[in-house]
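Service request form, structural biology core

Requester: graduate student, group of Dr. S.
Request type: structure prediction, single chain
Budget code: on file
Notes: please return the result as structure tokens.

Sequence provided:
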Amino acid sequence: AAKGNPGPSGWCWWAGPECWAAGGWPTATNNIAELTAVGAALAALQGDLNTNVTIVTDSKYVINSMTKYIHGWKRNGWRTTKGDNVANSAYIKRIDELIRARNATLNWEWVKGHTGVYGNTHADAGASQAAEAFAGRGTLRTGPGWTGTLPQLPS
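Core staff response, request fulfilled:
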């Protein structure tokens, strides 16, 4: 979430009511927040590299970056087809490292944002709350973090 783009921004990954984390910055973009949420979630899972994981996100930017565009960017030395530096490449490279460290399958699932999808709604609320906190309107709630098990979520 970004309140302005760039502006006060927040990220959140959410695996359940007792298993989530959030943070943010006084100034960042929505894309940086989305990438950070995925990177933080994968980093939290580093203690269990053998569990299959599905990242559910409303960010086509993140999914396309990690499943389509990354291959060309790597071939081109982290340059776009126009020769420009890839935006947010440090975040994308970190996620790629975390994915390559896994011994299990990582799947991506896109959901439309703001449509009541259970986990996405909670992640969005956490990211928005963090962005508001960095805008000076509230206290940052960082969450309990990784609790060691993935809860069963309702469909």
